[in-house]
Amino acid sequence: MPAMPTTKHTNTDAQRILNIMDELKDKLSCLSVCTPHVLNALQSEDGQATQELVGPDLMKTFTEQTKLEDLYMMATSNDINEQRDEGEDAVREEEVQLKKNTLELCRKMKERQRPVPNLVRELRNFQDQEQTRNIIQFLHTLKDMQDLTLKRLQTSVEEERMRTEMLENYKTREAEASKRRQQLERDLSLVRRECERAKSQRMQILNKLKAELLYVRESKQRRMDSLRSRYDTRMKEHEFTFAAKEEDLQKKIATLREANKKARGVNEEDESGQKHKTKRQEMEVEIVIRDYDRQVKEKAVQLGDISDQYKNEQKHLQELSDHFKKVEEEKRTIGAEEAITNARLAKKANEKGRRDDSSSLVQAFWRGIIQREAFNTMKKAGKKKGGKKKK
User: Fold this and answer.
1) Which of 133, 130, 113 has its CA nearest to residue 122?
2) 135: Cβ contacts below 8 Å, ≥ 6 apart
3) Residue pLDDT, tens place only, 19-52
4) For the chain, where are the alpha helices, taking DSSP H only?
5) pLDDT per residue over 102-132, tens digit each?
6) Where are the domains of the chain?
């Protein structure tokens, strides 16, 4: 453990340290908002207003800073994976360019903050929330560290000893935490080895699949070549067969044309005779057609006469039909009137019969009443006669 310094720092040393820490805090504040996420947000439509606050010169340096960081990360990864001298040279070159551009970016940010004091706050609005929280926490830690350094420069020897004892306690706890950290790092290395093993297995599977894909592509290409050669051979065979058939058919066509020419010369006389015969038959057909036309005209005239006669008979038949309809209607009217008369007579006869029956019933009822009164009178008279006899 190194011995604690016994001499107290001067005010100049304290001011120099505080200025260095202030400058470090300002640079870190400026660099904390120079991320690819903020650059993409500034280049979008929502960041046009903030981009005007940043300015074209600072925006150009910002873009170059992002590109150099990407190149440095790529060169560092290539250096770790390949371990080549050229990679180390590339890393050193990228590191030099990145340092130079970082200093230039910090200088331009400070110059831009003079007319625009809230530039860092505006750019921080485009950061990721988690990243912004981590950066703000780091800046607060740096501010606490600055305050602690100031207090450390201003403390006395007794306070320094008390702080030394406290520091010893913290170092003991830090040793325990280091052991715990080593254990966690061993566990992490074990997990990383498992991940590397799983990654190697996945790479083996991927290489196997790539080999199978290459084999399938090569076999497909070979099959396509074989099919192409096969069908080319078949196409040539078909073309040869077609050419032979075409030549044979051309010969047959020439032979048939010669035969047709000879047959035409032989049959010219027969053709002329057939033409004369055709003319004679046409004349006979014209005669038959004229006779047929004459007969048709006569039949048409007869048909016209018959049609007129038929129309007259139809007219006469219609008149008779109308007359008979009137007669039938009159007959039906007479029959209806006779039926009404018969119905009236029948109704009168029925009414007379009903009245006769009613009269007969009334008379019979009246005669019965008279007979019953006469019977009662005779009965009373008989009773009186019988009483007298008994006496």
Assistant:
1) 113
2) 32, 127
3) 777 777 677 667 667 777 776 777 777 667 776 7
4) 11-32, 36-43, 48-54, 56-82, 85-113, 119-124, 129-154, 157-266, 268-390
5) 777 777 777 776 776 767 777 766 666 665 5
6) 11-158, 159-228
Q: In this structure, what is the dihedral angle of CA atoms 191, 196, 199, 200, given to the nearest 10 degrees? A: -140
The label of the residue with tokens 């018959």 reads: 306
Query: Are 61 and 104 a contacting pair, CB within 8 Å?
Result: yes
Task: Determine how many CB atoms are found less than 10 A away from the CB of residue 61.
Answer: 20
Compute φ and ψ for 247, nearest 5 degrees.
-65, -45
Listed ranges 103-107, 136-140, 187-191; the one with the highest mean pLDDT: 187-191
Rg, C-alpha atoms of the chain = 70
d(CA 221, CA 212): 14
Q: What is the identity of the amino acid at 268?
A: E
pLDDT value of position 1: 40
| CB contact at 8 A, 24 and 71 | no
Strand segments (E) across the chain = none
